[in-house]
Amino acid sequence: MESNQIKAEMDQPKPENLILVNREPNGIAYVTINRPRSLNSLTKSMMTDMARAFKSLDRDESVRVVILSGSGRAFCSGVDLTAAEDVFKGDVKDVESDPVVQMELCRKPIIGAISGFAITAGFEIALACDVLVAAKGAKFIDTHTRFGIFPSWGLSQKLARIIGPNRAREASLTATPVTAEQGERWGLVNHVVEEGELMKKAQEVALGMIKNNQDLVLRYKSVINDGLKLDLGNALALEKERGHEYYKGMSKEQFKKMQEFIAGLEQSIKKEIFKNFDVVEDYSDHRYDKNKSENCFTNTESCVYKKIMREWKILDNDLPDSIFVRVYEKRIDLLRAVIIGAQGTPYHDALFFFDIAFPSDYPTKPPQVFYRSHGLRLNPNLYASGNVCLSILNTWHGEGNEKWNPAKSTILQVLVSIQGLVLNAKPFFNEPGNSPTSSWESYNEKVFVFSCKTMLFQLQIPPKNFESFVADHFQDRAFTILRACKAYRDGRVSIGLFSDNGPSSSSEINNIEVSRKFRDSMDKLIPQLLLKLSRDGTSLQDMLEKLDNEREQKIEEPNIGDNKKDLDSFLKVLGKLWSCLCLNLEE
Predict the structure, then answer these.
(1) Pick from 274, 290, 381, 497: CA 20 to 30 A from residue 508's CA?
(2) How far apart are CA 126 and CA 76, in angstroms?
(3) Where are the domains of the chain?
(4) 8 burial class (0-12, 13-18, 19+ CB within 10 angstroms)?
(5) Which residues lie below 8 Å from residue 60, measured CB to CB, with a gap of 6+?
(6) What SS3 state is found at 43?
(7) Which whole-number Å values give the CA distances from 201 to 54, 122, 130, 196, 572, in the listed order?
């Protein structure tokens, strides 16, 4: 009730509107010191209003981040001299009316958007922010010594810890302005931008915080700020203690959300590291590397060259998340693509590599496409020889609009056609003449066996320029692949219908008839896959036990606080994520 009352009162317009509070639906709240004619100097009542504003925003669950700024030509020029006696002789223990205390107590991150002057009390308010974004003309000035005012909002202690004691002593004892550029070099200011970009940059930083786990943002800010008050040894102990409390008290639902968040973040990082489309150099293992490089592929004015560049642009902009392409800087007539098998098909989680070559009269003729089959025919359209039979390539019969159209057809259409029309749920029917009475289920058994064998070949010798992609993909999907192998072998799920959360259809559970040949094949393949897929150090025995335990019951997300093994497992995931982050930073 008190929180709602404070919020309602703060949002009511004041007669002078000297402290403005604006809450946005995106989770950002704006606090503006609004006394521009006096360069936003603070009166006693303004300080009280600002303190109450931050107390209200701290309690408002819809607010994720606060941006503090000043209107007009200054951020805040300090205490209004006409109110100085009231301020300086007031009750220093009245924390409810102290804006700096309430800012320090506020759990939400506070971003200071500094334009113009931040003088003395304004400087101290800026130091109470968690992040500072400053316009190029901003200046921070400590005038305590000039006017005979003793600091009481922490400037004498905070500044020295941020920019170093020698710089702080000079700035405070001489009342010399610290410019925005100096502040950035010394670690006082996070970002310096043009005046017109100030709020935009502050909002960008705020949104960067909002997209992260809200609970962790609040806890992380708290442990940083509280740790700064301690020596390093006690600060490290504080971090360890709070980390233990956090994990110990985590519910199953919180643990599940954390797993989902980490998985999404890990995929985003990996996507940044291994882009869907990129230009590389080494084409030495490409199927068509011996093709003669015609002049049309090096002449930037040729129609073929320009058309291929348009193809590159389409691929760069429009590739789906499940298709990755590498083109070659010195051989624009070649490219390599990999398609991730779709869920709901016997090809799920497998990788399918294709080497592609543009003919010299492209696009009059369609491209050459070679499937890297490893001698396995796992689809009627994909031959063991590597030939690809597809209407759009003019290698399979089809109606007029299904054939290659020089004016409209693209490489992207070829890849999407392979993914959707060839690598489908029932590939048996890709072959003309195969009727519904035929055994498409037994064909899917054969397909899945060949998919598993293809995985082993790819893990042994991954295609050039895709080495990290192959390793990371199978490391991420290892447990799902192995669970699927067991489920299909035991007849618990129809082939292609396994998912991370179990069968994709409740009717597809138990008593699925599988052939003896398929069971025997999987009995041989599962140990081989375990050996190859456990390269990250995961215990083979642990994986086997998990696979066996899930047969009788659905695996539940454990309470991380009650199970040390689960905590160790989670920390391994964090370790992998950290490796991705480090790699990204190095690049």
Answers:
(1) 381
(2) 9
(3) 2-211, 281-556
(4) exposed
(5) 3, 7, 23, 29
(6) coil
(7) 22, 21, 15, 10, 35
Strand partners, 28: 65
Residue 369 bridge partners (DSSP): 356
Buried-state track 10-42, b at ≥16 Cβ within 10 A, e below 16: beeeeeeebbbbebeeebbbbbbbbbeeebbbb
Q: Interior CA angle at 414 toward 408 and 420, to 5°?
A: 120
How do 74-76 and 502-503 pair as beta strands? Answer: unpaired
Are 10 and 21 within 8 A, CB to CB? yes
Residues 506-555 have pLDDT tens digits of 444 557 889 999 999 999 999 999 888 875 445 545 655 655 665 544 43
> Domain 2-211, what fold?
2-enoyl-CoA Hydratase; Chain A, domain 1 (3.90.226)
CATH level 3 topology of 281-556? Ubiquitin Conjugating Enzyme (3.10.110)
Q: CA dihedral in degrees (492, 498, 503, 509; nearest 10)?
A: -20
Enumerate the H helices of 164-213 as residue ranges. 165-174, 180-186, 198-210
* Tokens 């202690």, located at residue: 157
- The reply to whether 281-556 shares the fold of 2-211 is no
Contact 543, 481 (CB under 8 A): no
The span from the CA of 522 to the CA of 513, in Å, is: 15
- 223 or 564, greater pLDDT: 223
Look at the pTM and tell me if it is higher than 0.90.
no
Query: Of 45, 73, 94, 89, nearest to 139 (Cα)?
Result: 73
For the cut 60, the answer to whether the pLDDT of residue 579 exceeds it is: no
Q: What is the pLDDT of residue 432?
A: 72
CA dihedral over 375, 377, 383, 388, signed as positive or negative: negative
Tell me whether residue 86 is exposed, middle or buried, using C-beta atoms within 10 angstroms of its C-beta: 0 to 12, 13 to 18, 19 or more: middle
- Which residue's entry shows tokens 């669970």? 483
Cβ pair 19, 54 in contact under 8 A: no
Angle at 64 between CA 58 and CA 65, to 5 degrees: 85
Query: What's the per-residue H, E or C state across 374-415?
Result: CCCCCECCECCCCEECCHHHCCCCCCHHHCCCCCCCCHHHHH
Cα–Cα dist 472/340, whole Å: 13
Q: State whether residue 176 is helix, strand or coil.
A: coil
Q: Are 49 and 12 in contact (CB under 8 A)?
A: no
Q: Label residue 558 by pLDDT band (50, 70, 90).
A: very low
